[in-house]
Amino acid sequence: MWRYIASLALLLASTWLLFSGMWSHPILLPLGALSVVFSIWLSHRLGILDRTTRPLRILLASLRYWPWLFGQIVQSSVQVARHVLSPRLDINPRIVRLPITQQTDLGRAMLANSITLTPGTVSIYVRKGEIWFYALDAESAQATVSGEMDRRVRRFAEDAQ
Hints:
Elements: H1 2-20, H2 28-46, H3 55-85, E1 94-99, H4 105-117, E2 121-127, E3 130-135, H5 138-145, H6 148-160
Antiparallel strand pairs: 1-3, 2-3
Helix pairs in contact: 1-2, 3-6, 4-6
């Protein structure tokens, strides 16, 4: 059990340090350490920290998924900016029903959040076999409907297990 707690603490602390950039601030460093300890205590208290928790496997799966998602966010941002800056481009909003292959709550939540993070699309309804989302235009809808995001999220969820 201590091995899993130590790997989670290492993962949380390194993530906090990476994203905060506060390496030497006299107040924020102890508060960051306190937030890591509190998060681990809360995870243990909620019963979600056990031998099946593998934070380092999640980190490795994330290193494959997040760069791809970042690229999708950049591509979609450029597309939305083109629509905003060019009055001639047609905006044709639509609601799209997307059948999904996600079997876990983690997979469904990650897919819905990934769709929402991508500019021009917003997840509006999630259930076991499908996600409904809003798309700004046909190009945004097609990029999501292609199934690539669903496949990558499924692989992420499988690798994180």
